[in-house]
Amino acid sequence: MPRLDDAALDLLFRSARSHNAWLDKPVSAAQLHELYELMKLGPTSSNGSPARLVFVHSAAAKARLVPLMAPGNQAKVQAAPVSVLIAYDKRFHERLPQLFPHNPDAAAPFAANPALAEATAFRNSSLQGAYLMLAARALGLDCGPMSGFDAAGVNREFFGGEVVVNFICCLGYGDAAGLFPRHPRLDFDTACQLL
Predict the structure, then answer these.
(1) Domain segments of the chain: what residues?
(2) Which CATH superfamily is domain 25-178 in?
(3) pLDDT tens-digit readout, 165-182
């Protein structure tokens, strides 16, 4: 497999930033479809694909979401062209016969153990949220992930039953004037072990 060039690595990681302020430039439904078509290709265990997405972009939908955000995140959601609710389906395993057809018994362990199903759905929807952010950056969009919100309120307002929110990510074209200086990251020896 070929290695990405430095320009691509800069776009995805080195120059990419988490944005807090947004330009008044829309994101189209076609862009969101393209984004999902890339995101869905990222690997999940047993191809379970538990993430469920709600793209909040209309004024009416924003009016429902903004009051559920932590005070520091309300203006971000209001200004962003789109805020994606990344959720997960605790009953994702019911789709394994379609998504993992070579193993007809793949759903059984999850059906028998709801705690295992939820932990697996949470873990893999987190992965899918990361794929969403990388796909967005690859398509020229900026991201602003956040976890400051009333999860119970978001679940009541936007989901029902077995689908629950994991985290929220604003999408659009970031305003560089709203960026903080890049914060430090841990070095290899602090964060990693090579055994």
Answers:
(1) 25-178
(2) NADH Oxidase (3.40.109.10)
(3) 999 999 999 999 999 899
